[in-house]
Amino acid sequence: MAHTRYPNLLAPLDLGHVTLRNRVLMGSMHVGLEEQFGPLTKLAAYFRVRARHKVGLIVTGGFAPSWSGGVKPLAGRLSNAWEVHKHRVITDAVHEEGGRIALQILHAGRYAYHPLAVAPSPQKSPISPFRARGLSARGVEGTIGDFVRCAVAAKAAGYDGVEIMGSEGYLINQFIAAKTNRRTDGWGGSFEQRIRFPLEIVRRTRQAVGADFIIVFRLSMLDLVDDGSTWDEVVHLAKELQAAGVSILNTGIGWHEARVPTIATMVPRAAFTWITARLREHVRVPLITSNRINMPDVAEQVLARGDADMVSMARPFLADPEWVEKAEQGREDEINTCIACNQACIDHVFKNIRASCLVNPKACYEDELVVAPTAAPKRVAVVGAGPAGLAAATTAAERGHHVVLFDAAAEIGGQLNLARQVPGKEEFNETLRYFRRRLEITGVDVRLGSLATAADLRGFDTILLATGVHPRALSIPGADHPKVVSYIDVLRRTVEVGARVAIIGAGGIGFDVAAFLAHDDGAHGVDGYLDTWGVDRAYSGRGALKAPREAVAARDVTLCQRSAGKPGAKLGKTTGWIHRATLQKLGVKALSGVTYQRVDDAGLHVLIDGRSLVLEVDHVVVCAGQEPNRSLEASLAGMNVVRIGGADVASELDARRAIDQGTRVAAAL
Ligand code: FAD
Ligand code: NAP
Ligand code: SF4
Question: Fewest C-beta in 10 Å: which of 80, 125, 177, 613?
Fold first, then answer.
């Protein structure tokens, strides 16, 4: 019988030889566990829990079919029979939980970060320092053989299928696009010849693995680079792939070198499903759509509209492995929603650190960060309901401790209540909804509007001090001038900010405040976003790009920092460029190497390169960093106090560290 709320999302999908239990695909995501020596036990533990909670089909992170195809040196590989046994633990774990899993075969081509890189033609990509060698005709044949051997090994390892990665600008995509395929032999030149490479891979793979094996092909539907494919070429390739034997076509959006944000939090939810929808009339095989789908109602709407047959979500399963089951059981308000921040997942992978999740630090630490019931319940006071305090209070209570949570404010969330005011950071609302519900479920005694004092905290076995931070005050003449305001006043809208603004401090908060003040109302919604970033819904040219629309800034903003170098250099690895580009579009001026002199009625007086300058502004917003708020601590002598979050270390604090520390401290109480 169809599910009453999610009749499309939770409907089975019959692929002929196998039926998937629902329309939810856990999309491929490299998490840094793929390179474990010996059997891949940590990956197995990670996938097991997602399969247990009913994901329809899991796709692993990319495994290379050869040494040269790895994204980095020693990247996870499946290219020989002797590597098969490493994967058995994964497929056994998933099958024991009633799930299905496919291995993604990923050949990086010119994106490889090592000197053995190969590509259709000799070239360097903008995102790797290594120049790839052009494959010889024999090399092309050999590479096709590598894909086939990898798929055969995947079948031997017990996988239910493979996903052939043909998008995002990796090797296969490099063969397809004229931009990167300059060959003059039978593998280059005309479009028909450029697509021979993916088609031969699929044909020969199908022949080798037989009919009872899933082959998903990830097809780049929007390249979002100059000289990418046209829509007619995408349709043509999709039909040919169907004829060659794919079981399912998955949607790829944008090459990694594209200058259009495609998955970050400022991308509206489900902003790209329209392109999958457009392909549906041309093929019979099921289509998967993807990008910024993170809640069940969004996924259901996408499927109900007929945009696709399945939805792919990757990061949402880092955030909450129980996502499908919670949807099925009507517990959507318990879903720990992926906020698309990239901070603990993709940013980690780029830094060669194991991925995890800002809102769920247990992700990828399934067998290490275990929240077990306590044998000795304690009375625990948590002071501060920011992310550190929320994570600690709910984790401690989940374990069976008696927890009282104090916050001076009238609502939970601490600084997340400021963060969620920033355009494009609205997903923090979901984090607060999640914690609100979690406090109820775990039975935490929540006392809001309650500035905790030493008297309130007597009698507790442990006090977790999660009192956060104070903004750093400005110490120049005129710091008390009425023009000078704090980011807190601005984001709480307790001041009416004028048309010309200078911001002191170009860290994460300075950037957010600039985006908040200069915001462009026309950039909202799917169409506003696509127009702002120059994505051509009409697909009239190659790569689906068009001239971006001119932004209309609400204010004239100047962002200042004392240090030299590019402002925003320390912002997130995968999102910093988006923040910088956004401010540039909004005409925000950035000044480095600034010495602040004073503020007076004329504005902010600064020195740059020895030259005096007056920034004639109506307001000066101070975003000059933060210091720990430990004012309560001195009165707690003799009590068992543990600091967490900003109260512990304010420097380089973010919600990722706050939640991680709060969870770990409470897990060990
Ligand atoms: P806080 O969030 O500061 O919470 C401390 C709480 O303690 C407050 O609610 C306060 O009322 C309470 N309190 C203090 N003293 C007492 C007392 N005596 N009794 C009772 N209650 C008390 N981080 C990210 O990771 N990603 C982002 O994108 C991001 N964006 C941000 C954007 C903005 C505009 C801002 C301001 C911050 C952003 N941050 C972001 C940073 C993140 O919000 C902080 O790092 C995080 O909130 C710190 O958590 P915390 O729990 O340590 O402290
Ligand atoms: P921050 O990133 O440390 O930036 C503080 C800024 O103030 C710097 O530009 C610093 O640069 C300047 N500054 C420091 N001391 C100063 C002083 N005495 N006078 C004038 N300027 C001074 O801190 P933040 O912007 O307050 O952010 C706080 C934390 O929240 C950060 O750790 C950040 O990671 C997190 N956050 C994250 C995000 C995100 O998107 N991930 C967004 C917002 C906040 P100069 O010294 O060069 O002037
Ligand atoms: Fe989503 Fe952020 Fe978690 Fe990554 S770190 S999975 S983007 S919430």
Answer: 80
Let me know whether 645 and 612 are in one domain: no
Q: How many CB atoms lie within 10 A of CB 243?
A: 12
* Cα(246)–Cα(164) distance, integer angstroms: 10
Looking at the predicted structure, is the pLDDT value of residue 572 above 90?
A: no
Domain co-membership, 487 together with 573: yes
CA distance 465 to 474: 26
In a domain, 68, yes or no: yes
Higher pLDDT, 366 or 521: 366
Same domain, 248 and 386: no
Do 427 and 450 fall into the same domain?
yes
Answer yes or no: is the C-beta of 514 below 6 A from any ligand 1 atom: no
pLDDT in tens, 331-369: 999 999 999 999 999 999 999 999 999 999 999 999 999
Which ligand sits closest to the CA of 341? 3
Q: How many separate domains does the chain show?
A: 3
Q: How far is the CA of 389 from the centre of ligand 3 (A)?
A: 19
Q: What's the CA gap between 285 and 361, in Å, rounded?
A: 37
State the burial class of residue 408 (Cβ atoms within 10 Å of its Cβ: 0-12, 13-18, 19+): middle
Separation of CA 612 and ligand 2 centre (Å): 24
Q: Which residues of 69-87 are buried (b: 16+ CB within 10 A; e: fewer)?
A: bbbbeebbbbbeeeebebb
625 lines ligand 2 (CB under 6 A): yes
Burial of 507 (0-12, 13-18, 19+ CB in 10 A): middle
Residue 95 sits in the same domain as residue 205: yes
Distance of CA 29 from the midpoint of ligand 3 (Å): 12
Other C-beta atoms lying within 10 Å of the C-beta of residue 649: 14
288 in a structural domain: yes
3-state helix, strand, coil in the chain (%, to 5): 35, 20, 50
What is the model's pTM? Answer: 0.97
Q: Which residue has the tokens 């909670």?
A: 53
Residue of 338, 351, 430 to mutate, ligand 3, most atoms within 8 A of C-beta: 338
State whether the beta carbon of 341 lies less than 6 angstroms from ligand 3: yes
Ligand nearest to the CA of 582: 2
Distance 472 CA to ligand 2 centre (A): 10
Judge if the beta carbon of residue 408 lies within 6 A of ligand 1.
yes
Give a yes or no: residue 602 inside a domain: yes
- Three-state DSSP class for residue 338: coil
Q: How far apart are CA 483 and CA 263, in angstroms?
A: 38
Both 579 and 649 in one domain: the answer is no
361 domain residue, yes or no: no
Compute the distance between CA of residue 610 and CA of residue 203 in angstroms, rounded to an integer: 67
Task: Judge if the beta carbon of residue 582 lies within 6 A of ligand 2.
Answer: no
Positions annotated as catalytic residues are 170
DSSP string, 370-389: --PPPSS--EEEEE--SHHH
For the segment 14-27, what is each residue's pLDDT rounded down to a tens digit?
Answer: 999 999 999 999 99
Amino acid 442 reads: T
Q: Which domain holds residue 146?
A: 13-331
Q: Which of 654, 659, 661 to mutate to test the pocket of ligand 2 (most atoms within 8 A of CB)?
A: 654
Nearest alpha carbon, ligand 3 atom 1: 338
